[in-house]
């Protein structure tokens, strides 16, 4: 595997220019809007599934504390929505969804409905990354669904284990709560989580393999850093510009949450565009090859 690096001087400007032009040509803003829409619809089912999985490892109170700690690194509007989803999931598990529609198989049907919502959101993200990486969609609907299902279940399982680790971290950092060391650990953990998530998406989502491309890339690191910055600055920006409150009134929290999702997806797609641009301009990253 060839070592990845960013070329100096004019090549850097060429890479940035290529990435910006490609992002505009692909319309990543429009693609991100679709992904954000499906992600918003999948939030409550995803949290319900996550709580159900985590309940196998933790108690209900521990799950609530862990999720609320995770929302500390989210903008206030996003944290409010996730907290509502958590309360709804605590009252009604994923197995209870759709029980009235099919009482004999209610629990299984409810799990399928919840999981299907998450799969559709994942498929939307996979399609967007296919467009960004300019890969031909070689996956059939059945194969795409299987890959999305595997990725969704894997992500939920990892998040459930991460919640268990968060509980241990909460107790370990209790003496440093509200201090600089505690904040550094919290945001460093967020950066590593974003980095691993984005890197895995860049590797799994495209319809083809990624020959020669290292797991950690410049685009992935840049996207993870931008996501951390977005989470820390989004609430401040929204708070200092009251346009959302004036325009949307009581729906301003939902509007801010959707906007945060949209910006997050744009950042992920922009990181992918950066990786493609580096390959096109320098040849240091392997091309995406069909399966």
Automatic annotation (TrEMBL):
Transmembrane region(s): 27-54, 108-129, 141-167, 187-205, 212-238, 250-272
Top-level lineage group: Bacteria
Subcellular location: Cell membrane
GO cellular component: plasma membrane
Keywords: Cell membrane, Membrane, Plasmid, Transmembrane, Transmembrane helix
Coiled-coil residue windows: none
InterPro entries xrefs: Virul_fac_BrkB
Bilayer topology term: Multi-pass membrane protein
Signal peptide start-end: none
Full protein name: Ribonuclease BN
């Amino acid at each position: 595997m060839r070592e990845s690096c960013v070329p100096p001087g004019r090549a850097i400007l060429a890479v940035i220019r290529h990435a910006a032009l490609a992002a505009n040509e692909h319309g990543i803003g429009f693609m991100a809007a679709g992904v954000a829409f499906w992600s918003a619809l999948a939030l409550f089912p995803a949290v319900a599934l996550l709580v159900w999985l985590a309940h196998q490892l933790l108690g209900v109170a521990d799950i609530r504390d862990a999720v609320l700690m995770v929302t500390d690194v989210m903008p206030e509007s996003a944290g409010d929505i996730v907290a509502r989803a958590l309360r709804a999931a605590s009252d009604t598990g994923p197995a209870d969804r759709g029980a009235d529609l099919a009482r004999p198989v209610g629990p299984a049907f409810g799990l399928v409905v919840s999981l299907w919502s998450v799969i559709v959101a994942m498929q939307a993200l996979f399609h967007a990354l296919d467009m960004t990486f300019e890969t031909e969609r070689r996956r059939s609907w059945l194969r795409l669904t299987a890959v999305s299902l595997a990725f969704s279940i894997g992500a939920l399982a990892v998040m459930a284990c991460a919640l268990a680790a968060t509980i241990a971290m909460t107790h370990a950092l209790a003496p440093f709560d509200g201090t600089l060391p505690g904040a550094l650990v919290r945001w460093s953990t967020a950066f590593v989580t974003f980095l691993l998530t984005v890197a895995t998406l860049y590797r799994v989502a495209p319809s083809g393999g990624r020959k020669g491309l290292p797991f950690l890339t410049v685009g992935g690191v840049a996207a993870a850093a931008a996501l951390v910055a977005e989470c820390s600055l989004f609430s401040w920006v929204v708070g200092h510009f009251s346009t959302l409150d004036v325009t949307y009134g009581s729906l301003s929290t939902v509007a801010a949450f959707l906007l945060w999702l949209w910006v997050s997806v744009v950042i992920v797609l922009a990181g992918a565009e950066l990786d493609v641009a580096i390959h096109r301009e320098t040849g240091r990253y392997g091309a995406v090859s069909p399966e």
